[in-house]
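so my prof wants the structure for this chain in the tokens format not the other one, which i didnt know existed until like an hour ago. anyway here's the sequence
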Amino acid sequence: MQTFLTYTFFALILLVINSYILYPVFIYILSILFKKKIEISNESYPQVSILISAYNEEKVIEKRVQNILNSNYDMDKIEILVGSDCSNDRTNEILKNLENAIPQLRVFIFNARRGKAGVLNDLVDYARNEILIFTDANTEFHQDAIKKMVQYFNDKRVGGVSGRLELVETHEHIKEGVEEKRYWQYETILKKSEGKLGILIGANGGIFAIRKSLFVKVPLDKPVTDDFFISLNVIKQGYWLIYEPEAVAFEYVARDVKTEFRRKVRFAATNFQTISFFRDLLFNKNIILSYAFWSHKIIRWFLPFILILLFIVNVLIFEQHLFFKYLLYLQVIVYGLGLIGYLFSKIKIRIGIISLISYFLITNLALLIGYFKFLRKKHSLIWQSTPR
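here's what i got, hopefully its the right format
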């Protein structure tokens, strides 16, 4: 029994090390050895449809539309479709006024609240162009973002392109101890490597483009993570999903730890639901794709259970060797520092590595809660943007 527990302990550790250390190294090396050669066009740019689902976005919607109009792109080749998901603030009024003044803008007011997925499904049907660009009302594009993404669609093997989302934090965010930006910088490194291989495991929801012919309607009977679902279907259909770091968009980080926690719980629940639509990617003939899907997503989403089991097994084999004692002490110290980091965030104190540990543990707690919401079907179909 003790031997079995020992093997289990090391297997669990290997899963964690693979996901956070080995996988980033391997995927980086593979991206150098097997980088996709893509035909890029910098001369002829396609017509594009930019899709935005909005709910109560009166504070940002006018600025968002203007931001797109300020893009370094031929405005005769752009249409902007905004769907208001039964907004009850001034969003509808603002959009109607903008539509009267801006020929590129098409506004759709939906009188029943259905959530982001329902709005996007309808907007895709209304879109006139083959290249669809998905973005959010609280996102801002760099002026070259559209050009940088669509230049790849000259290559018929490319089905989708994700831009790089940069998170902006203010002094207030720093005091709150929100470590989302630093974690996102780590994620960006992985996305660059995966993108070079054409197997980006999920686009950035605030800035990505796909061919309309590859769009699969987002399920309305089961809550899924829409950008993850839409972009992964590109890979599922055998096309490349790549990453363009020079196509930049900006968003503010969540305003505090509590808000970020709620967002992660919501996305965790829908992420677990989304997996059910992509089982064939888990054991795909493209071994690198399956390895990336397991390492970057599946193992990480189940990490809370791995960490809990690791702690329990460590307690059971505690007396076997000094090595196991030190590892148990280390786990206790890490969890203690995480608690301290959370308490410090309540009084607006941020201490580097302690805040990062706290963010890591809070993220895993959100995954755990999200999983049980998924099992109990307590996650909502209705999408709402995170206050920032």
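also thought this was worth mentioning. The chain is about 55% helix and 15% strand.
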